[in-house]
Every structure is written in C-alpha cells, then in structure tokens.
Design a protein that fits this description.
single chain, 150 residues, alpha+beta, 4 helices
Length: 150
C-alpha cells in the first residue's frame, strides 16, 4: 500500500531476518535501547485478529524464536514485547531488551524511544551497531524456520 510507511519500509530497510511472512529489523534511529527490534508482518494486515492461517500458525513460534535469540545475544534480563497498532495500519511488534542498567521498567521503558528522539537519552551508537550485528549473526546461524520446517 502506497500510503503505509511500514509497507514502503519493507522495500527500503535492510532486515536482520526476513522470510515470506516476517521482516525483523532494528527500530529506526535513534534507539532508546540497544537491541530494540521490530517484527513486521510482510503482508499488509492490521493485527493478529486479521492474520491469515499461515501468519496465525507462525506468529507465536516466530515471536518466541526472535525473543529467545535476542535474549541470548544481548544478555538482557528479559525481552519486553508490545504491539499496539495505532501509529500505522500495519501489524508490527516491538522487542525491547531490558538490561540491568536500563533506567526504566514496564511501560516506562517504551518511553525511552521518545526520549532518544528528543535527545533526552543517548545510547552509544557503537553499542547499538554491535548488538544489531550480533543479533543478525545469531539469526543467520539459527534462523527461524516456521511451523513444519526443519
């Protein structure tokens, strides 16, 4: 869809992982947390209630895999996950590592992205690049294969 920024970004943003259903990449800079990723449905779809059977069968497994690999790669305490779907009419969810030194927890962690865009929070760009590269290498070594695939 020409009016959907996420649809357009599927053709312009380099993914860390991509298959026929999902596109995984770092959040748009500046990131409020090193390793902040988004998982985007490749098909224009408003959310899980509108997934086709393939997306529905794959999503939980994909989310678990992408989160586990991100957790292992970053050494974070946990991976926060959120999908609200209000900003754009295209399903995407955020995977956000929470580290020991993360200044906020819970929903406050998601405010770090706004704070980074407003210059209130700065995350070392080298750390972001290193985490993104490590996550990409980990997904290359251990890609998501989807239901019924080995």
């Amino acid at each position: 869809m020409d009016d959907c920024a996420l649809c357009r970004s599927l053709h312009t943003e380099t993914p860390i992982f991509e298959d026929e259903l999902w596109h995984v990449r770092p959040i748009e800079a500046p990131a409020g947390v090193a390793g902040w990723m988004i998982v985007v449905a490749k098909r224009h779809v408003a959310g899980p209630a509108h997934f086709d059977d393939a997306e529905a069968a794959s999503f939980g497994l994909a989310l678990r895999h992408f989160s586990q690999v991100l957790l292992e790669t970053t050494g974070a305490l946990r991976i926060y996950t959120a999908a609200l779907g209000e900003a754009v009419p295209h399903f995407h969810c955020h995977l956000v590592p929470r580290y020991e030194d993360t200044p906020k927890k819970g929903w406050g962690l998601f405010d770090l992205q706004r704070a980074a865009k407003e210059g209130e929070v700065t995350v070392d760009p080298q750390r972001i690049r290193a985490v993104n590269a490590a996550y990409g290498e980990a997904l290359l070594a251990n890609p998501f294969r989807g239901p019924g695939r080995r």
